[in-house]
Amino acid sequence: MVYAYLKDRYKKFSLCACSLGAYFSLLAYQDIAFERCLFISPILNMERLIKNMMVWANVSENELKKKGTIGTSFGETLSWDYYQYVRENPIRKWDSKTFILYGERDNLTERQVLDSFSKKYSCDVTVMENGEHYFHTPEQLAYLDRWIKSAVCRTEKGR
Fold first, then answer.
1. Predicted TM-score (pTM) of this structure
2. Parallel, antiparallel, or unpaired for β 69-71 and 77-79?
3. Residue 74 and residue 31 share a domain
4. Which end of the chain is more exposed for a tag (fewer CB within 10 A), N or C?
């Protein structure tokens, strides 16, 4: 609905998404070319994240399948139906110029997942030393602000 609204009103548009919002954007907009995309701490492989959460919660695939949903001690609910949806709907295409800000200590997206995704889709990656998945400290927020300005300037100058 968002894209349908925008496409008839604007010639160019960009996307900015954070964490899970980046993942859902990757799913929803695979066939759309944005002028630029800014992803902050993106979830780039939901299947991998769910598998990691299953390990953290000591839940097997068979147990999740049998129970359907399982609450975890870290506040998330694992869902067999959602896990199957994710497995059946991987990110297959991404053709937009994408800038990614990643915290060095991100505990949700592993560095190898970031590196694989960014190589496959030619993303420009910035890693904040000692940064986390959630940019929330004054230092991290200042870094985020500088990064956004830099990414926007680079695309406006044609780089």
1. 0.90
2. antiparallel
3. no
4. N
